[in-house]
Design the sequence.
């Protein structure tokens, strides 16, 4: 079996397509060598050796030793030096390289092959004794740490000791003799810690490093990282052994990193940094200020340090050629590492470069224009989730931030405002022209007006599907939820965190994309939705199979949804309309009524208001389908919580406060989410269903008369678990439609369907489909009830569950495909069997999550529905799922 693949001197045994076998780094080193780029020669030990190693009690295949020896010999021949040769030693680097880059694993050992003898040879050959000794002490430190496991700080202490004793401030001030002294101290550290001497035999060093790379595949950190990023254990890592080149041999040497295009804006300019006379780690370590590659880059950043373009014009020119060649070859923006040794350029790495979403979009579009990639490829180049960064205002990246706490990134975007602690205060101050930040322990439906008035919302309790998070996402307000360190004192009008106190009226800023909470007012920049963004979305729409709808109910949100390209409303939560302005009074009157007549009287007041809402929505959606869900939450959500509020309401309604309190007590449930809500409530009070159906149909008929075009309304019943629950309400709705038809002379066009949000409904979908013309998967409740996990209270320990790998993701954010997903599959299959072609969609928060959207595509759903601001994300994700 072949275990070792060589590269260098313009050829290679591997190539870029062999990433699985050679790892990302190895495959690209081979590829660069193949296309004639100057790559120091070396070889890659394949990932199959890693697999073999773990399958066979941590032993290597028999042929490996010989193949490594052959590989080393080939390198020696190309370079003209010998590994372990005291006179003129070959030194190598050893690096890990999995299929995808993986922090948490052993990274790099440089200068391997140095010992007490070879260091003298290196000193003579390079003519620089200080350089040789510095390389040796760096090697002992690196190898001692990553291979032998001696703690880094033990070496750092010795370095500090020598600096103190000699009065040196910078490492570079140490002389050759100081370094020789330091080397002895380093060796003593190893002897003391391990009870054995630092290995002097280069072969032993090499195999030690190879073993360390393979062992690092199973470190705790690596395992955790793999879990979090869905990287299979079976992939294994490769090991790259490569001849050293030195960027630290004098002023004609350098090392640097670059991106072939600007990774933050996407502009087609060469963007990078370098350091003269330095080794790779110095650029990263931040000890010296790196210099810009180009004169333009230097000017843009106002730097005084000379650019590479000025200092090494010839090598810079070669590097520019490499840039063009790599981009044309890989057809993507590359992130490269290079070293210049005595005015000769060497390429050490290339890989596809990480970029901001803004840059990803611009690069994809410009590469289409340049003829490098197709439109379909461009669609695949943009990470849907990352669109979040550009659909909302974001913090000015140049601005300073004073972070005081962190919560969950519940609704993206950045916002600043003065702190207020109640929804009423938020509304009052906003009306007076202030920008406000609503800070609450948690929010409830009665806070909606304040949330609307606020720039952003900060809560100290609750998770990603808490009320605050869901509503904020729907409204496009920035929200940080569950910032558990913050203690709110409503009475004092302050909150405290990490010893700081913030008072009502103080400015704070939140970043709903990172969860950060900052003091003061941090400037933001606005999103740009035309141009390249619009082009990518258009190309995505051409690829997409599923429709994308929005969850929205206020005219403002519905309009936003349209603007972002929603093709219908997938969920209009009518209860949100019950809180607006005066209508909460009528709603409370209905709840307090002692009999049906009383309720009907109150409902009659609500009817025209609901009808008005629906007319507005139909008007904005212009004939696109609108799914309206009948009342879902338990009634007590509409009653106040605080005692003084009861008095106020009693006065408004002209009744005895005691009566209101008694009714509230009567409605109280210990487990309201599993209680008297949804279709259960509607079956107890069918007059509510009747009023809502009437409002919908009257609005539809009115719109049809006005526009001449029929409105397609889809009436949706929530929380069904038994077919009969649906049947009874269906009859009420049909009767109401007939009545409206008789009264108006126009027959409303509608369908009746149900949410599937309880496990029993999913299992009994076959019979439920006899009465339902569509299903909409309410995966928020379906997740809650499948796991038996409260969507409002589980955030705290779910974070811990994720950290410990008990759950890979928060199931309220990313659909649990194994469990909840199986219920969806079952429901889809059984529903379709009863009613072929039944319309299926999803309207839980997962409808805007790319991972979950790809699952929906696999189930052949007809549409996904999500918050208005996630519509573009869903359009792109649905397109990628279909490609
Ligand atoms: C759901 O349960 O997934 C759903 C969409 O309904 P709600 O979030 O309003 O309970
Ligand atoms: Mg629900």
Sequence:
């Amino acid at each position: 079996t072949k275990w070792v693949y060589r590269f260098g001197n313009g050829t290679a045994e591997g190539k870029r397509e062999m990433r699985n076998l050679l790892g990302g780094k190895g495959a690209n080193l081979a590829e660069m060598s193949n296309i004639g780029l100057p790559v120091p020669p070396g070889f890659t030990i394949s990932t199959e050796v890693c697999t073999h190693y773990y399958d066979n009690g941590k032993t290597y295949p028999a042929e490996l030793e010989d193949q490594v020896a052959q590989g080393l010999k080939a390198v020696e021949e190309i370079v003209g030096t010998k590994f372990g040769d005291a006179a003129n030693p070959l030194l190598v680097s050893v690096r890990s390289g999995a299929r995808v880059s993986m922090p948490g694993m052993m990274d790099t050992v440089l200068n391997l092959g140095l010992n007490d003898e070879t260091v003298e040879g290196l000193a003579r050959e390079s003519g620089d004794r200080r350089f040789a000794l510095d390389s040796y002490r760096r090697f002992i430190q690196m190898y001692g740490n990553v291979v032998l496991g001696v703690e880094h700080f033990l070496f750092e202490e010795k370095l500090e000791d020598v600096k103190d004793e000699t009065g040196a401030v910078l490492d570079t001030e140490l002389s050759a003799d100081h370094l020789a002294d330091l080397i002895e101290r380093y060796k003593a550290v190893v002897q003391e810690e391990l009870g054995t001497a630092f290995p002097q035999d280069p072969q032993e060093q090499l195999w030690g490093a190879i073993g360390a790379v393979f062992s690092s595949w199973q470190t705790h950190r690596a395992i955790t990282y793999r879990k979090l990023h869905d990287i299979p254990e079976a992939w294994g890592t490769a090991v790259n052994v490569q001849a050293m080149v030195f960027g630290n041999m004098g002023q004609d040497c350098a090392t640097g990193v670059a991106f072939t295009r600007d990774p933050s804006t996407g502009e087609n300019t060469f963007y990078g940094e370098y350091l003269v006379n330095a080794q790779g780690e110095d650029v990263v370590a931040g000890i010296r200020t790196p210099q810009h590659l180009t004169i333009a880059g230097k000017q843009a950043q106002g730097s005084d340090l000379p650019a590479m373009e000025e200092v090494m014009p010839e090598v810079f020119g070669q590097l520019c050629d490499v840039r063009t060649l790599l981009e044309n070859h890989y057809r993507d923006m590359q992130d490269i590492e290079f070293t210049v040794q005595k005015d000769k350029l060497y390429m050490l790495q290339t890989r596809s470069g990480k970029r901001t979403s803004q840059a990803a979009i611009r690069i994809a579009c410009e590469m289409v224009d340049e003829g490098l990639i197709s439109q379909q490829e461009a669609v695949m180049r943009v990470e849907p989730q990352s669109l979040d960064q550009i659909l909302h205002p974001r913090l000015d990246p140049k601005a300073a931030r004073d972070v005081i706490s962190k919560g969950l990134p519940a609704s993206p975007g950045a916002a600043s405002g003065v702190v207020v602690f109640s929804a009423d205060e938020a509304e009052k101050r906003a009306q007076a022209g202030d920008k406000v930040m609503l800070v609450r322990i948690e929010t409830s439906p009665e806070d909606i007006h304040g949330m609307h008035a606020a720039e952003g919302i900060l809560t100290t309790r609750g998770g990603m599907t808490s009320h605050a998070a869901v509503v904020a996402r729907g409204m496009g307000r920035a929200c940080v939820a569950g910032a558990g360190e913050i203690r709110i004192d409503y009475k004092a009008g302050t909150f405290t965190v990490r010893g700081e106190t913030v008072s009502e009226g103080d400015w704070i800023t939140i970043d709903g994309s990172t969860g950060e909470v900052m003091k003061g007012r941090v400037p933001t920049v606005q999103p740009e939705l035309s141009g390249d963004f619009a082009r990518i979305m258009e190309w995505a729409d051409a690829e997409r199979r599923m429709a994308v709808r929005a969850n929205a109910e206020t005219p403002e949100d519905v309009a936003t949804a349209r603007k972002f390209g929603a093709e219908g409303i997938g969920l209009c939560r009518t209860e949100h309309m019950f809180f607006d302005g005066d209508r909460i009074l009528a709603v409370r009157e209905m709840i307090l009524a002692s009999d049906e007549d009383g309720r009907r009287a109150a409902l009659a007041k609500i009817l025209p208001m609901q009808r008005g809402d629906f007319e507005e929505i139909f008007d904005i959606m212009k004939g696109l389908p609108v799914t309206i869900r009948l009342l879902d939450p338990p009634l007590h959500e509409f009653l106040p919580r605080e005692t003084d509020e009861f008095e106020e309401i009693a006065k408004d309604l002209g009744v005895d406060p005691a009566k209101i309190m008694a009714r509230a007590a009567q409605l109280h449930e210990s487990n309201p989410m599993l209680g008297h809500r949804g279709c259960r409530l509607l079956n107890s009070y069918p007059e509510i269903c009747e009023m809502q159906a009437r409002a919908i149909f009257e609005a539809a008929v009115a719109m049809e008369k006005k526009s001449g075009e029929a409105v397609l309304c889809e009436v949706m019943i929530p929380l069904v678990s038994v077919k009969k629950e649906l049947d009874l309400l269906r009859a009420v709705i049909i009767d109401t439609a007939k009545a409206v038809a008789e009264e108006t002379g126009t027959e409303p066009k509608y369908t009746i369907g149900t949410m599937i949000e309880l496990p029993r409904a999913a299992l009994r979908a076959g019979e439920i489909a006899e009465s339902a013309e569509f299903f909409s998967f309410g995966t928020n409740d379906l997740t809650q009830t499948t796991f038996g996990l409260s969507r409002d209270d589980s955030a705290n320990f779910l974070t811990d569950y994720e950290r410990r790998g008990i759950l890979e993701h928060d199931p309220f954010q990313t659909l649990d495909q194994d469990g909840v997903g199986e219920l969806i599959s079952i429901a889809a299959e059984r529903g379709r069997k009863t009613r072929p072609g039944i319309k299926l969609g999803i309207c839980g928060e997962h409808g805007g999550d790319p991972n979950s959207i790809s699952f929906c595509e696999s189930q052949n759903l007809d549409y996904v529905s999500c918050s208005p601001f996630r519509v573009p994300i869903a359009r792109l994700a649905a397109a990628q799922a279909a490609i």
About this structure: The chain is about 45% helix and 20% strand.
